[in-house]
Amino acid sequence: MINNRQVDHEMKPLTHASLAGNWATLLLATDREGAIDYTRLGEEIDVLISSSPSGIYSNGTAGEFYAQSEEEFRKISELLAEKCTSAGVPFQIGVSHMSPQLSLQRLRAVKDLRPGAVQVILPDWFPVSMEEAVAFLRRMEDEAEGIPLVLYNPPHAKKILEPEEWMALKEAVPSLIGVKVFDRDRDAAWYERVRTQVKGLSVFIPGHNLATGLLAGAHGAYSNVACLNPFAAQRWYEQILTDPKAALEVEERIHQFMDRCINPFITRDHYPNHACDRFMALLGGWAEVGSRLRWPYRSIPEELVPKIREEGRGIIPEFFDSPI
Fold first, then answer.
1. Are 320 and 311 a contacting pair, CB within 8 Å?
2. What percent of the chain has pLDDT over 90?
3. Is residue 91 pLDDT above 50, yes or no?
């Protein structure tokens, strides 16, 4: 059954009930030397706003949060907040850092911007115990002063949490409203645990699994397919709500595209996952974000775009030929 919750576009704190839908990620716009181009970053935000997503978030993995100075972090956050507040589009700011001290510092730096929520990761140099995870999140909750928390727990984190552990954290940290997690590639048993055990948390899964996820009980995606085409990603989300059968067929072709055109860069060539997010933006051609991740991470060569674009168009033309 689809969870068809409406996202409140007023600029006020999100709740577990209003955190839902297709959220677009802000990719870092950089030049060939890796310097942030704030003009192009602003233009990217404008395009994302015009795609009418459920919301926009900054400083996830695709936004290269780990590679920003604190001055850069503040400027990116201010730019997103200014444009989204003006347009009435919900936004979240990722205050994540591998260091808990720097995560806390980032939260202090942006809480005056009043995002709908802030995203955090658990401290990530050494795996934390549950007691340590609670201590970290409680400190962040106190500092946030009413801004809700969303926990980002990627598959490469030092500590991978299970649904029962999400609920233990929720009980200890009431302002935790959501989790951003990997859904084990549409595993039915995993979704059964989510449906039966998880209450009071919005569960966000990978964008390429959104149709299956919404039908199985998830609530939205911080969408990697929006990196390819944010307009097509939003139209697909709306199709899931109105014509789930057709949307599931699109999802199967999205998986074909990922398996044939994108995943080999990770499994065969060992590029980092977020190099693929940036490469998909190049394929979609909707924003000038640049081709290179910041040093020292490798980037997929830009000269491969025409070949992969043509192959992708043959699989999911909705994401290549539809208007932007």
1. no
2. 92
3. yes
